[in-house]
Amino acid sequence: MEPVLSLKNISYAYHTAQAETPVLSDISLDVFQGEFISIVGPSGCGKSTLLSIINGLLKPDEGTLLLGENTGGDSPVKVGYMLQRDQLFEWRTIWQNAILGLEITHQLNEKNMKKTMERLKFYDLYDFKDSYPSQLSGGMRQRVALVRTLALEPQLLLLDEPFSALDYQTRLMVSDDICMLIKKEKRTALLVTHDLSEAISTADRILVLSKRPAGIKADIPIQFETADLSPLERRNSPLFSAYFNKIWKELIGHEQHQ
Amino acid sequence: MNNISETQRIYLSHARRKKVLIHLLRIGLLVAILVFWEVSARLGWIDDFIFSSPSLIGACALDMIRDGLLQMHLMATLKVTILSFLLVTLLSIVSALLLWMSRTISSILEPYLVVLNSLPKSALAPLLIVWLGNNQATIVVAGVSVAIFGSIMTLYTNFCEIDPEKVKLIYTLGGTRLSVLTKLLLPGSVPIIISNMKVNIGLCLIGIVIGEMISSKAGLGYLIIYGTQVLSRV
Questions:
Q1: Chain B: nearest CA to A108, how far in angstroms?
Q2: Domain stops at, among B65, B93, B112
Q3: Cross-strand partners of A64
Q4: Are residues B135 and B158 both part of a single domain?
């Protein structure tokens, strides 16, 4: 099976007048169809930069990035990006926010609009389609952001700490919700997070990044008793704390070596 | 609306009473000032040749309205004010957008804008006559010159304060710089553009009156100068 996304020896540095700051060094990674991968690492290590490179917002200084057909797969892979905050536009209604991507890419046809409308219904947002973002709770806003991302039908989803702006309770519920949906729709996802529990409860594979300049320090497959446990059920599994300790050691161990 | 609770009813009636009271006091304050002015003039506390009085002004205004003079002067000022206001609005939005699109241009021009904005525009008015002649164009340019630089700077500053994460969102959705402009910058700036317009209409009027004072046969500025020079109530 060909990977959906393939990174080979990616390096990247930020340039300012004062200095050059290397952020990523020699990152290689293959992501396969349907995988849910979580990326954890010390804060400021360049996790978000990695997502920006995958999405094409930044060009890597070195290395190659292959998406979809270029890796030998059969179709081009569309990438969707979900940001830390929902970034809904206050002057647009929920519906207008949901179709923003379709509007920008001129794909606002009947079929796509119908699909987006169905998604709003599915996420219990239909009754609010003519409301403005300020009238919605944090969890609902994040769901609208997901609908907006999914409207462009991306096969590969990049999630940049999408739940970090929510309060703890909402966060558990929304991450449970969204992860189950992504898995049900068999989409591939890369989730950046600094919350180990969130990473373990959602992912099939966890990548631990080292301090800046970040490299991949460990690549840990996650397997629970059965494959279809929801994130909340995973948190109750005895395996959960074992994984937690293992990944915690990977993260901390590195800092002690420094 | 029959199921309003007693406390809600009391709250509503209080709120209504307060609103009425504010309106009454607002009008009352104006009436009190006018009455005080009139009484002061009548009783000789102030010289009505210098300070005039509400009744003298009223009588004069009535005379002028009867002759059609006041309407004529008001219309003259209104026309050029609106024209210069529209010019300022359009020019400042376009200029601020150009500055926003090119960091290089904006860095080069920034000190010039600051200096131009702090120039005393009324001092320029006599020069404008020499440059543009004794005509309507001078008056419109005087109006535009007072408002335009501040307006460009306000809009440009606000355009630059746009959330970079929202810009990133547009790009992640497959947008271009043009989409940032049409989907984010312009619609997001509507409130600031409108509040900027409110400031501009006042500034334009100031500029227009200055312009009319030095180069005009009609308008409020002309009327003020005429009134001062003949020391009359027209």
A1: 13
A2: B65
A3: A8
A4: yes
> B148 and B101, same structural domain?
yes
From the list A85, A91, A105, which residue is nearest B174 (CB)?
Answer: A105
ipTM reported for the complex surpasses 0.90: no
What is the model's pLDDT at position A71?
55
Residues of chain B with pLDDT under 50: 233-234
For every residue of B26-85, DSSP letters joined together read: HHHHHHHHHHHHHHHHHTTSS-HHHH--HHHHHHHHHHHHHHTHHHHHHHHHHHHHHHHH
**Residue B32 belongs to what domain range?**
6-65
Phi-psi region at B76: left, alpha or beta (left = phi > 0; alpha = psi -120 to 50) = alpha
The verdict on residue B199 lying in a domain is yes
Residue A175, C-beta contacts closer than 8 angstroms, at least 6 positions apart: A163, A198, A201, A202, A231
Number of structural domains, chain B? 2
> pTM value?
0.78
B98/B139 same-domain check: yes
Q: Is residue B223 part of a domain?
A: yes
Does residue B1 form part of some domain? no
Same domain, B26 and B138: no
| Chain pair A-B, CB pairs under 8 angstroms | 42
- Kindly state whether residues B90 and B74 are assigned to the same domain: yes
- How far apart (Å, rounded) are the C-alpha atoms in residues A217 and A47? 13
Beta strands in B98-219 (DSSP E): none
Measure in Å the smallest separation between the Cα of A175 and chain B Cα atoms: 21
Tens digit of pLDDT at every position of chain A (258 positions): 778 888 999 999 988 888 888 999 899 999 998 899 999 988 878 888 999 999 888 899 998 888 876 555 555 678 999 988 899 999 999 999 999 999 999 999 999 999 999 989 988 899 999 999 999 988 889 889 989 998 998 889 999 988 887 888 888 888 888 888 888 878 899 999 988 999 999 899 999 998 888 888 889 998 888 877 888 888 888 889 999 999 988 888 755 554
Q: Which of B169, B178, B194 to mutate to test the interface with A (most CBs of A within 10 A)?
A: B169
CB–CB contact A104 B168 (8 Å): no
Closest CA to B85 of B196, B201, B221: B201
Q: What CA–CA distance (Å, rounded) separates A236 from A231?
A: 9
Residue A124's pLDDT is 86
Interstrand relation of A79-82 and A188-192 (parallel, antiparallel or unpaired): unpaired
Q: Are residues B75 and B172 in the same domain?
A: yes
Give the CA radius of gyration of chain A. Answer: 19
Angle between helices B190-214 and B220-230 (to 10 degrees): 40
Check CB contact of A101 with chain B, cutoff 8 Å.
yes
- Residues B178 and B111 occupy one common structural domain: yes
B27 belongs to a structural domain: yes
